[in-house]
Design brief:
By secondary structure, the protein is an alpha/beta fold. The chain has 27 helices and 31 strands. The chain is 35% helix and 17% strand.
């Protein structure tokens, strides 16, 4: 976590000592020294990431860099805190001196670390080619790679698919990539294919090499070992000579090469030049945890992504490993399946659990006890599992390590909302913009990177295909918790309860605890983050005021407990970047502007909230969310100090339409997401239009949600709009005409909207770029549309809709249409959609996917197997905001 600590400290220095009306601190020579030296440390951490010849020494140096960065951050933030109390600058330095030790001690430690950093740079320079030494890391021969287990489940279809790809008619050299998280069975599948008799017969030459931890010479020798007999003369050759030899040995032969566990695109680039393409059908079978590597190989076939085992196959594997080929314990099947289900479909976990069960008595009581406790059992086998997965963590770029471990602070088995992660990562200071337009865009790239590295699982995607919510596998979460404990990254009850670490913990995460009495004694002065998940029992509101005294808090998330009034103690937390509270009585004090660092402000259950004018002084604000409530923004005036134009503000929900004055709108020029609540579905639309016309000033607006609005003319939408949601609105006949003029509109959702005369007729209107259309809880007597109106539509969703007539049958003729989803609609709608699908099939279009969720209305119609049916299931718990 050294890189994250340095990055956060550098950001803190820049923010605190930049000009602002709240603090009058000059960046003296000491702070300039800190910025300079920490910048050197940051570059060193990046440069040394893949050049470590003495891992223990570098890890110790990283620990020292992390600790001194924490101390420097503590110093400057306490300096800022004391400055708020109107102490003179000398008094501030004196307070910091007395509470955190002399600044000179921090500077002295930085100087000592700098000497070690310079020594490491010299060693890195001297040993740049050390890894080219003789037979570096030449491990077991390729034919001694992963051995296929005597019993494998769930891979028959995968083996057939990979064999088909390898033996295809294409004559050019092709790459078949297997992608998946560690322990999912990539190497096992590759070995099954590699050892198959058909593959042995089809290809004249065969070689297998495991790429992990090998340098160029190592994996060249590994490949040659499968083709020729290695001699001392061959081992003494350098990399260039070995590459030439490999190329000549493979020339004019039809070969199959397995590159197992590839970790970088650079490794592929180094090896591909040694592989001749004689247009004879040679193949490369590549396994990797990184989608980036698979895509870089540039094969005509898409990467093959391995899936988790389903419950039946997990139980089959578990049962065979515990009982052998014959299971004579049917009384254990139900509890055994519960244990198998907790393995989350990862074969590696199933094998570890099976190993533990095989050593236990085969009685129901023993297995029931194991089912309740096995996730907390720390065995050698479990540690070996984590060591396998730790390779993925160690190969992460520095900036992603903190992002990954941070996710492990959330409770297990929940879906984490993308928006929540993004705002928290930014609030913690893990990310810097660099070449990116905004921190939010960079954070989304980081999330996709973690997905492509198979470290997190996508639970749901948004209508534009991007990640909406994600989760982390239990085994990877255990890995993250282990790293968090080792780095003292956050405190989780039951993970590290020692009082020796509590006093210096940086982050606190409580999951449904009963009381906060113990953690608040003594107060943890260095804590920067406080999470509370789940509503604790027997928790009095007075107990919640303890953590509000953590004066250095950056992140405060208390959304599962509530306050009667906005807690005044929060106004002392001047370093807050993220604040999420539940307040029953709507109020926002004028002193809220003291939170000059605040980026994300979330209030839940607050009814109607009148923001004070001082909100316009909070120039760091990026996102303002009102959940189960609406807010009123006052017009900014020239009668107060500080910022007037909130250039960083990107999100406001849910704002009353009366706040959409010209004065407000022009002072939030970079707003990207806006939700506006109107005066009522049947209220006069002219008054709302008067305010909404000001939205044309928002040149960056991409997402707009309008709720409870009367009859509107939609000509107020800016051309930048990409997503529009209209809910509980009254829609006139011509409401679509202005929307068709929006060149960037891709997503349109109509929820509980009422059409004039319950009719929606599209004649000449064309949504030129619309890709996603959702109709939710609509009643339409007539809907006339054709493929001309939606030329680029890809996804149509009908949810709880009633149509007196069939849906437009010409919808199926949209060339780009991929999917029609029907959810909880009457049978008449289901039948209409099925007819569209059958018409397309008759025309030779089998690519249209129709998904129908069973409605509560009974139907006697037999649903054909070609239509996928989904039963309604309960949605797993998720965390948002």
């Amino acid at each position: 976590m050294a890189f994250a600590a340095v990055t956060v400290c550098l950001q803190t220095l820049d923010q605190i000592f930049s000009p602002n009306p709240f603090l009058k601190l000059d960046k003296d020579e000491h702070c300039k020294f800190l910025s300079e030296k920490l910048g050197i440390f940051q570059r060193f951490l990046v440069d040394s990431a893949n050049k470590r010849d003495n891992l223990k020494m570098v890890e110790e140096l990283e620990r020292r860099i992390r600790d001194v960065s924490y101390r420097a951050q503590d110093y400057v933030e306490e300096l800022a805190s004391f400055s708020w109390k109107d102490l003179d600058l000398v008094g501030c330095y004196d307070r910091v001196y007395s509470t955190k030790g002399c600044l000179s001690q921090i500077i002295e430690e930085i100087k000592l670390i700098e000497l070690e950093v310079m020594k490491n740079y010299e060693q890195m320079s001297c040993h740049a080619n050390v890894y080219e030494s003789e037979s570096y890391l030449l491990e077991s021969s390729p034919e001694k790679g992963p051995v296929v287990q005597d019993f494998v489940v769930g891979l028959d279809d995968d083996v057939l698919e990979i064999k088909t790809r390898l033996c295809s008619f294409s004559s050019k050299l092709e790459v078949v990539s297997l992608v998946g998280m560690g322990g999912i069975g990539k190497s096992t599948l590759a070995r099954m294919v590699y050892d198959d008799s058909l593959i042995k017969y089809h290809f004249g030459s065969h070689a297998w090499v495991t790429m992990k931890d090998r340098q160029v010479k190592g994996f060249l020798l590994g490949l040659l070992d499968g083709i020729v007999e290695l001699t001392n003369e061959i081992r003494e050759k350098n990399s260039e000579q070995l590459a030439e030899m490999l190329y000549k040995k493979l020339k004019f032969k039809r070969y199959i090469i397995v590159l197992d566990d590839v970790w970088s695109t650079e490794d592929w680039d180094k090896i591909k030049r040694c592989l001749p393409d004689d247009k004879n059908g040679s193949r490369i079978l590549l396994t990797t945890r990184l989608m980036k590597v698979a895509l870089h190989a540039k094969s005509d076939s898409s990467p093959y992504c391995l899936k988790f085992l389903d419950l039946e196959r997990s139980w089959e594997l578990l049962c065979h490993k515990v009982f052998g080929r014959k299971s004579d314990h049917p009384d254990l099947e139900d509890i055994g399946k519960k244990i198998a289900e907790q393995c989350k479909g990862l074969p590696l976990t199933v094998l570890v659990v099976a190993g533990l069960l095989s050593k236990m008595q085969r009685t129901r009581s023993c297995w029931e006890t194991f089912a309740k406790t096995f996730r907390s059992i720390g065995t050698d086998e479990h540690k070996k599992c984590l060591d396998v997965l730790a390779l993925s963590y160690r190969n992460l770029p520095h900036h992603l390590k903190a992002c990954f471990i941070y996710m492990c602070a959330f409770p297990a088995e929940i879906a984490i909302h993308f928006r929540l992660l993004v705002t928290l990562w930014i609030a913690e200071g893990f990310l810097t913009t660099g070449k990116h337009n905004t921190l939010e865009n960079y954070a989304e790239e980081c999330l996709e990177d973690l997905v492509n590295r198979n470290l997190i699982i996508v639970k749901k995607r948004r209508s534009n295909g991007r990640v909406k919510s994600c989760a982390i596998h239990d085994l990877l979460r255990d890995l993250g918790l282990r790293e968090a404990q080792r780095e003292n990254f956050f405190y989780l009850p039951g993970l590290s309860d020692t009082t020796n670490t509590l006093h210096c913990v940086r982050r606190l995460s409580y999951h449904g605890v009963f009381s906060f009495e113990v953690p608040w004694k003594p107060l943890l002065p260095l804590s920067r983050t406080l999470f509370l998940f789940g509503k604790p029992k027997f928790l009095r509101e007075s107990q919640l005021h303890g953590p509000l005294l953590y004066k250095l808090l950056r992140v405060l998330r208390l959304v599962d407990v509530s306050f009667d009034y906005f807690p005044a103690q929060v106004l002392q937390l001047v370093h807050l970047r993220y604040l999420a509270l539940v307040v029953h009585r709507p109020e926002c004090p004028e002193l809220i502007s003291r939170l000059w660092n605040l980026q994300t402000f979330i209030l839940k259950r607050c009814g109607r909230l009148n923001f004070p004018r001082t909100l316009w002084e909070m120039e760091q604000l990026r996102h303002v969310y009102l959940v189960q409530g609406v807010c009123l923004l006052p017009n900014p005036t020239s009668g107060f100090n500080g910022c007037k134009v909130l250039t960083n503000l990107q999100t406001v929900t849910h704002m009353r339409v009366e706040s959409c004055t010209r004065e407000v709108i022009v002072n939030v020029p970079n707003l990207k997401k806006l939700a506006i609540t109107g005066l009522g579905q049947y209220a006069c639309g002219q008054r709302s239009s008067y305010y909404l016309n000001n939205l044309l000033y928002l040149k960056q607006l991409e997402k707009l949600t309008l709720s409870n609005h009367g009859k509107l003319c939609m000509d107020f939408c800016p051309s930048s709009l990409k997503k529009l949601v209209l809910q509980r609105c009254y829609l006139s006949r011509g409401f679509t005409s202005p929307l068709c003029m929006l060149p960037n509109l891709e997503i349109l959702k109509l929820k509980r909207a009422e059409f004039e005369q319950h009719t929606w007729n599209l004649t000449e209107e064309v949504f030129s770029n619309l890709k996603y259309l959702k109709l939710d809880s609509l009643v339409l007597m007539e809907w006339n549309a054709s493929c001309v109106n939606f030329p680029k539509l890809e996804h149509l969703i009908l949810e709880r809709c009633y149509f007196q007539e069939d849906i437009p049958h010409d919808i199926g003729n949209i060339y780009t249409l991929q999917c029609i989803e029907v959810r909880s609609c009457p049978v008449v709608v289901e039948m209409s959609v099925r007819r569209v699908q059958e018409e397309q099939k008759d025309m030779g279009n089998d690519s249209l996917n129709v998904s129908i969720e069973k409605s509560s209305i009974k139907s006697s119609i037999i649903i054909k197997s070609s239509t996928r049916i989904k039963s309604s299931t309960s949605i797993k718990s998720s965390v948002s905001f």
